[in-house]
Amino acid sequence: MTTRVHPLLRAAYVVLLLAATACFVYPLVWLVSASLKPKSEVFDNRLVPRHVQWSNFVQVWDAGPVLRWLSNSVVVGVMAATTVTLSSALVAFGFAYFRFRGRGLLFGLVLSTMMLPGAVTMIPVYLIWNKLGFVDTQVPLWGQNLFGTAFYIFLLRQFFLGVPRELFEAARVDGCSYFGLFRRIALPLCRPALVIVFVFELKASWSDLMRPLIYLQTPDYFTMPRGLKQIVDAYALSGEYHWEIAMAATLIATVPMIVVFAFAQRYILDGLATSARQG
Amino acid sequence: MAELVTPRPPLEEPAPGPSASSRKGPARARSPRGRGTVQGRETRAALAFISPWILGFLVFTAGPMLVSLVLSFTDYSLVGQTHSVGVDNYRQLWEDPRVRQSLANTFVYAALFVPIGTVVALGLAMLLAGVGRASGFFRTAFYLPEMTPAVAAAALFLLLLNGQTGLVNTVLGWFGIDGPNWTTDPAWLKPSLAVVSLWSMGGTIVIYLAALKNVPRQLHEAAMLDGAGPIRRFFNVTLPMISGAVFFTVITNTIAALQMFDQAYTMFYGPQQKATASDASLVYMVYLFQNAFQFFKMGFASAMAWLLFVIIMLITVVQLRVGNRVVYYEGDTR
Predict the structure, then answer these.
(1) With contact defined as beta carbons under 8 Å apart, do A247 and A31 qualify?
(2) Is B52 exposed, middle or buried (0-12, 13-18, 19+ CB in 10 A)?
(3) Measured CA distances, B210 to A179, A226, A263, A273, B234 (Å)
(4) Cβ contacts (< 8 Å) between A243 and chain B: which residues?
(5) Cys bridge to A92: A22, A156, B139, B215, which one at CB 3.0-4.6 A?
């Protein structure tokens, strides 16, 4: 693609690329900057604040128990990601290794649930958690993950299918149990796939707004997005417009995921590319 | 935490009891290819592995679907008496102007986001494909916003899209464009939602980039030898080769767009607002959510959910039909 391109065209290309990069990255830079500005300067679009006001982050603390929300989000996220990874892997292995009658049909059913809008089951599922006495606890935010999720089952099955069958058969001959095949061969060989699922779910759980809105009433139980929504409502819509504090809270909600991304980006980006391959 | 999941009924060796083996014994003798006992044991083991999903499907999907369907013919509201109301809820879907409004809003939003998103993502992915080894860096940069929770992205863009002093309009001003009041002018609420979604579209770009890298160079070279210019090469080589990825993202993005909630709710809705405020940003899921959990009209909300289900099914089926005609699948898959 780089053969004999007119220098002017090449310059235009570079400008376009940098402009596009700026569109994606600059809002985050702006966020950092805005979260450090005093109220009067939030909108001045200056990259470096004239007066750095660290106290915004202290003010966030007054707006809500932010540390509590963060730790809630961590707990919910780790629970959600751990349970969904293990359960989806178990189910995926069932579909990948065994040949049994009705497998195609059953797997088709798994895939078809991907198209089902959450709204259809939302109210009855709420009623179930309500009956079980789990409303206003964090259990509904991850409880369903104990049973696997179609997309992850699909993704992990792809990886398990990639393990050479001879490995499994050799282990069987050596007397390995079916569960042993799963735990000692499939899981270790597909560790990158497990990381992908874990991080995807961590991200999904960290971003989730609707379920915390539905299930949580006590502010102390809120997850970070739910708490952030509360702060935005309080500081933005009440007419008091303390945007600098809302932006500090927004930054606090964002940074942990950026950190996760920094560690897991290879897995996430490659996983995304793989997930679409099958189409 | 792991303890919650790992201890399961002994999946390994669902020991075939003496009765089972004697029952299946002759079968194995008859079939040299390892049917009979082995087959039965494998099936049972497979079902044991799959059982979490089956259980979850029954309790959290199939059962609730049935209940939701039943509720949609009632006036269920969590408290008080529940009556069967026949098809009243469904009739109300036609009559409630806010249902119509929210549907229209959702379609407008999806019609803005999905096509523009596809074209922009494809353009950016091609831009990245051209930078060679550095594309890893840009890939990361473009994906970063997607790690931002939707609530945070929405809050951030509420300020960036501010009509008077927001960054977006400031930048537009450099080019002599008088930017609109994105967050207050009813006509611009849906475009502003689309802007937020476009910003967090990195996943689609990454998928396209991977697809582009899989296009064999020889095809391009052959086309070039045949005298095809860049535009013809794009339409006759690149696009067909990545059509599977494009198709996949169009379907998933459409399904997601029709269920959009977080951004609209964060930017334009909250407990303080009146139910009728800013109807121009009332997307379907927000109205459904309000009906279910703020007005507690759960019967009606269930009917709304089924309408959404039907709409998504119809649109997906149409897309699949069109897709199967247009999409080129490499020999290896399906």
Answers:
(1) yes
(2) buried
(3) 35, 34, 21, 6, 16
(4) 159
(5) A156
Selection from B61, B63, B82 nearest residue B299 by Cα: B82
N-term to C-term CA, chain A: 27
Question: B74 φ, ψ to 5°?
Answer: -130, 175
Q: Smallest Cβ distance to A27: which of B160, B265, B304?
A: B160
Q: Which residues contact B1 (CB under 8 A, 6 or more apart)?
A: A78, A79, A82, A83
- Among candidate residues A13, A49, A17, the one with its CA nearest the CA of residue A31: A49
A 201-220 → B contacts, CB under 8 A? 203, 206-207, 209-210, 213-214
pLDDT class of B272 with cuts at 50, 70, 90: low
B8-32 exposure pattern, b = at least 16 Cβ within 10 A, e = fewer? eeebeebebeeeeeeebeeebeeee
Give pLDDT tens digits for A39-82.
888 888 788 888 888 888 888 888 889 999 999 999 999 999 99
Give the residue from A178, A214, A258 with the most B CB atoms within 10 Å of its CB, the best one to mutate: A178
Torsion of CA A251, A252, A256, A258, to 10 degrees: 0
pLDDT digits (tens, 9 = 90+) for A219-271: 999 999 999 999 988 876 556 678 889 999 999 999 999 999 988 888 888 88
CB atoms within 10 A of CB B318: 10
Which amino acid type is present at position B139? Answer: R
Q: How far apart are CA B220 and CA B226, in angstroms?
A: 10
| A80 CB neighbour count, 10 Å cutoff | 25
Amino acid identity at B182: W
B84 strand-pairing partners = B74
Q: Choose among B275, B254, B123: nearest CA to A23.
A: B123
ipTM computed for the complex:
0.91
